[in-house]
Amino acid sequence: MDILAELNGNIATIGYGLATLGPGIGLGILIGKALEGMARQPEVANTLRTNMFIGVAFVEVLALLGLIAGFLFI
Amino acid sequence: MDILAELNGNIATIGYGLATLGPGIGLGILIGKALEGMARQPEVANTLRTNMFIGVAFVEVLALLGLIAGFLFI
Amino acid sequence: MDILAELNGNIATIGYGLATLGPGIGLGILIGKALEGMARQPEVANTLRTNMFIGVAFVEVLALLGLIAGFLFI
């Protein structure tokens, strides 16, 4: 019998793909709201940008941990 | 018969990927609303940031437990 | 016959990942609305925070039960 299917690869790539799904949408909402606030009140743009970076750090780390998870769980 | 599929990796990476999906979107909404409030009333930015951190802690722990779950359930 | 697939890990990690999906989004909406209310009327911030914690407890327990479920269903 011949080969029916030849699938190669590591399942960790799917894991990372899933790990970017939520943070990707979340970062879009987060930074979008910051830009909306800057457009509404340009005089607080600096405060908004500072707090935006704090928030981005919390969300971005979730997606990057998805890449590290591939090394952790062998 | 030859090898049908050569998939490697740990299913825990998919588990972590799924665990970031909800918190990733949730953190985006949460921090986005905080930034929206800061733009609307800059004088309560400190109160909003404090409460934002409390909320972030509750949501972030759900995603990080997804990484710990990979070590718990071997 | 050769090795078909070399996948490791416990399916309970996927179960926990799915269990955080709803609560993660839900907590984001819940706390985000509380922050929105605090920005709108800063004088009721304490009342909002107290009620926010009551709501957070109800939603958070759903996600944490997802972790306990991995130990219950062996």
Automatic annotation (TrEMBL), chains A, B, C:
InterPro entries for this protein: ATP_synth_csu_bac/chlpt, ATP_synth_F0_csu, ATP_synth_F0_csu_DDCD_BS, ATP_synth_F0_csu_sf, ATPase_proteolipid_c-like_dom, F/V-ATP_Csub_sf
Family the UniProt entry places it in: Belongs to the ATPase C chain family.
Keyword Ribosomal protein: no
Superkingdom as given in the UniProt entry: Bacteria
Listed GO CC annotations: plasma membrane; proton-transporting ATP synthase complex; proton-transporting two-sector ATPase complex, proton-transporting domain
UniProt entry tagged with the keyword Transmembrane: yes
Chief location: membrane
UniProt entry keywords in alphabetical sequence: ATP synthesis, Cell membrane, CF(0), Hydrogen ion transport, Ion transport, Lipid-binding, Membrane, Transmembrane, Transmembrane helix, Transport
Location within or outside the cell: Cell membrane
Site positions (Reversibly protonated during proton transport): E60
Gene Ontology MF term list: lipid binding; proton-transporting ATP synthase activity, rotational mechanism
Record's protein name: ATP synthase subunit c
Role noted for this protein: F(1)F(0) ATP synthase produces ATP from ADP in the presence of a proton or sodium gradient. F-type ATPases consist of two structural domains, F(1) containing the extramembraneous catalytic core and F(0) containing the membrane proton channel, linked together by a central stalk and a peripheral stalk. During catalysis, ATP synthesis in the catalytic domain of F(1) is coupled via a rotary mechanism of the central stalk subunits to proton translocation. Key component of the F(0) channel; it plays a direct role in translocation across the membrane. A homomeric c-ring of between 10-14 subunits forms the central stalk rotor element with the F(1) delta and epsilon subunits.
Pfam families reported in the protein's UniProt record: ATP-synt_C
